[in-house]
């Protein structure tokens, strides 16, 4: 699940967009519109004379409200502090590096190429390079008129040669005040409505911003209480903090090695001790914050505050915040942390894994360590980053963090190359919808299935690809998924090609290094192994009443030919009552057997018991 990062909304708004105008002259030339903006708001020379800004005010998101402070030194330095009490965040840029400190005190330097490009674009805008009508970087285009909030507006589109981001600015056709800006990126759209224009030293600034982010449909407001220009700041204000989070302790020394983990339906599970109770949590590099099931949080007496929306796999996800007490995982004790509380965790794990799991260990836990995962041996180790040196023979891969997740380079079939979200919390690997659609992958031969994750279910197609090349290694015959519709979740983004999951990672011993933003791969004992997969065409899950329910019958498979239907309840397999199977995984493994295998399966459909014959056959 993706964490929201709101403070950058302030720090990365180009300064010139904060200015309003007040002239009624008609024009359809985008540069004339911009020039009128500058003249009416005090003149370009006066605008260029602004070297620094300061704003403070109130940030409101649903039931959460708190304060923010924003310092800027033009063109490229900024610092924003956001305090929502239960959630705090600080970001900064000293002109050399961009950084973020989250609510748990973890500092991360941005190395993501997309962030670095946007920093450069913002700095160029703040130097007014877009005013040059022969600019090789910026291009302005008048694209027509439209109603915005019942106001007739001129629409100007700004593009650049550094990335595909597009900015559309809506100018009131009478007053030429900016009524809205729409920022379009490969990962989504942000609508910003500036209002409450006020004068500061002869320049107009909107003191209220109403912001909507799509596809999550997150809405929040920024109300400026005060502002000032041309103040002097100590340069160190914009530097990243010198002290990082030190909120963990090892039981012995500077590491905890070879801790056994459970590998359940291609997911890593670890016992977590909290408030004297040990329960199973999933491990997930794709989770931008750690997550506790909301029902379990209430059970152990944790207060849940605020409501927000984040990106799940399938759709947007509603969540709150809680303060965890100290907890222990595999020889590591963590101090109290602020994490996400969401209602999907326990029901999701019960339904799809048949297991009692109550949390997800994400960035807030994993970012503290260098983590080694030996998939074949089912062992995990944690190391203190400042005392860790890799001495193996594996391949070290630079994988800069995008948000709080790694962007890992990988190539499929020697053609489809780019960065993938490194996600040990995903059982399978998937192309993102925009990439799959743009490359006609949705037309590739395969079979449809239902995918499940935070936010619900998605319809996807599974197709066989010849090979993937990752970290200098080649893994053959990989089945990759492709969503059949855009959705509102993490797979709707366009900056990454897709999501890299455990079906590929289980070939390796993986080292995950947040401090250096690197992934290290070594061939594991299972490298190149043909891992068994479902041959039945049935997707079966556990109901709340612990019945084994058919939730999807894959079209064109043996399951469909045998007469299975959704909502069928499996009662027995080869005359063995389903209650004798130790777990959902044990039953599913029967459908992964190779060779000539067939089963007599007794199901309940409504009030009737029906005996069906199912013969296993490869789906691809």
Question: Could you please describe the fold and organization of this structure?
Answer:
The longest helix has 14 residues, at 113-126. It is globular and about 85 Å long. Among the domains are: 8-238, outer membrane lipoprotein receptor (LolB), chain A (Clam); 538-615, PDZ domain (Pdz3 Domain), CATH 2.30.42.10. With 620 residues, the protein is mainly beta. A 13-stranded antiparallel sheet has the order 6-5-4-3-2-1-13-12-11-10-9-8-7. Strands 14, 16, 17, 18, 19, 20, 21, 22, 23, 24 and 25 form an 11-stranded mixed sheet that branches. Strands 29, 30, 31, 32, 33, 34, 35 and 36 form an 8-stranded mixed sheet that branches. The protein is 12% helix and 47% strand.
Relevant terms:
620 residues, mainly beta, outer membrane lipoprotein receptor (LolB), chain A, Pdz3 Domain, eleven-stranded mixed beta sheet, 44 strands, 12% helix, disordered N terminus
Instruction: Tell me which CATH architecture of the domain at 8-238 applies here.
Output: Clam
Q: Determine the structural class based on helices, strands and strand pairing.
A: mainly beta
Unreliably modeled segments: 1-12, 20-25
SS elements, strand count: 44
What is the CATH topology classification name of the domain at 8-238? outer membrane lipoprotein receptor (LolB), chain A
| Sheet with most strands: strand arrangement | 6-5-4-3-2-1-13-12-11-10-9-8-7
**Full CATH superfamily name of the domain at 8-238:** Lipoprotein localisation LolA/LolB/LppX
Q: Given this structure, which CATH class of the domain at 8-238 is correct? A: Mainly Beta
Give the overall average pLDDT.
91
- How many angstroms separate the termini? 30 Å
Number of continuous helical runs: 11
Report the biggest beta sheet as strand number plus sense, adding barrel if it closes: 13 strands, antiparallel
Query: What oligomeric state do the depicted chains represent?
Result: single chain
| Rg (CA only) | 27 Å
Report helical residue fraction: 10-25%
Strand content: over 45%
Taken from the alpha-carbon principal axes, the silhouette is globular
């Amino acid at each position: 699940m993706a964490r929201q990062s709101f403070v950058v909304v302030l720090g990365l708004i180009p300064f010139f967009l904060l200015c309003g105008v007040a002239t009624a002259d008609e024009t359809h030339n985008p540069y004339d519109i911009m020039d009128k903006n500058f003249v009416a708001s005090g003149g370009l020379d006066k605008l260029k004379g602004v070297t620094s800004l300061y704003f403070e005010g109130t940030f409101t998101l649903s039931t959460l409200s708190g304060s923010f402070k924003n310092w800027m030194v033009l063109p490229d330095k900024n610092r924003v502090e956001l305090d929502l009490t239960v959630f705090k965040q600080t970001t900064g840029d000293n002109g050399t590096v961009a950084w973020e400190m989250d609510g748990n005190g973890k500092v991360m330097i941005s190395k993501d190429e997309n962030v670095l490009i946007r920093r450069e674009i913002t700095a160029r805008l703040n130097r007014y390079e877009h005013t040059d009508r022969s600019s090789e970087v910026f291009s302005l285009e008048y694209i027509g008129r439209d109603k915005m909030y019942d106001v007739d507006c001129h629409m100007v589109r700004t593009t650049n040669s550094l990335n595909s981001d597009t900015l559309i600015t809506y100018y009131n056709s009478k007053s030429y005040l900016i009524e809205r800006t729409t920022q379009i990126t490969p990962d989504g759209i942000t609508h910003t409505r500036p209002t409450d224009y006020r004068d500061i030293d002869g320049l107009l600034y909107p003191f209220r911003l109403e912001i909507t982010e799509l596809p999550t449909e997150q809405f929040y407001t920024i109300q400026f209480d005060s502002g000032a220009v041309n103040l002097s700041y100590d340069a160190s204000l914009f530097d990243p903090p010198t002290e990082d989070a030190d909120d963990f302790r090892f039981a012995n020394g500077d590491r905890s090695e070879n801790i056994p983990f459970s590998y359940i339906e291609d997911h890593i599970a670890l016992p977590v001790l909290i408030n004297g109770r040990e329960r199973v949590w999933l491990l997930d590099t794709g989770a931008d914050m750690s997550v506790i099931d909301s029902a379990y949080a209430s059970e152990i007496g944790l207060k849940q505050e605020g409501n927000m929306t984040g990106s799940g796999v399938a759709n947007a996800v509603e969540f709150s915040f809680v303060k965890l007490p100290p907890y222990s995982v595999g020889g590591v004790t963590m101090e109290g942390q602020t994490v996400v509380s969401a209602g999907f965790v326990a029901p999701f794990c019960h339904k799809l894994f048949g297991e009692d799991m109550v949390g997800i260990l994400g960035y807030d836990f994993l970012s503290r360590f260098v983590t080694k995962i030996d998939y074949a041996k089912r062992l995990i180790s944690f190391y203190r980053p400042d005392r860790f040196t890799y001495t193996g023979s594996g391949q070290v891969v630079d994988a800069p963090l995008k948000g709080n997740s790694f962007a890992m380079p990988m190539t499929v079939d020697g053609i489809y190359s780019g960065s993938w979200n490194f996600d040990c919390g995903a059982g399978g690997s998937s192309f993102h919808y925009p990439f799959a659609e743009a490359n006609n992958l949705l037309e590739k031969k395969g079979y449809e299935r239902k995918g499940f994750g935070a936010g619900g279910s998605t319809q996807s197609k599974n197709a066989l690809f010849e090979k993937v090349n990752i970290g200098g290694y080649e893994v053959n015959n990989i089945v990759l998924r492709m969503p059949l519709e855009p959705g509102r979740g993490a797979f709707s983004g366009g900056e990454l090609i897709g999501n890299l999951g455990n079906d590929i990672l289980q070939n390796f011993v993986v080292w995950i290094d947040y401090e250096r933003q690197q992934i290290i791969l070594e061939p594991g004992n299972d490298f190149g192994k043909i891992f068994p997969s479902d041959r039945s065409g049935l997707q079966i899950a556990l109901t709340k009443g612990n019945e084994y329910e058919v939730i999807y019958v894959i079209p064109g498979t043996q399951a469909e030919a045998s007469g299975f239907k959704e909502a069928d309840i499996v009662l027995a397999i080869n005359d063995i009552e389903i209650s004798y199977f130790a777990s959902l995984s044990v039953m599913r493994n029967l459908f992964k057997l190779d060779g000539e295998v067939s089963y007599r399966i007794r199901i309940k459909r409504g009030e009737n018991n029906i005996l069906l014959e199912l013969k296993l056959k490869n789906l691809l």
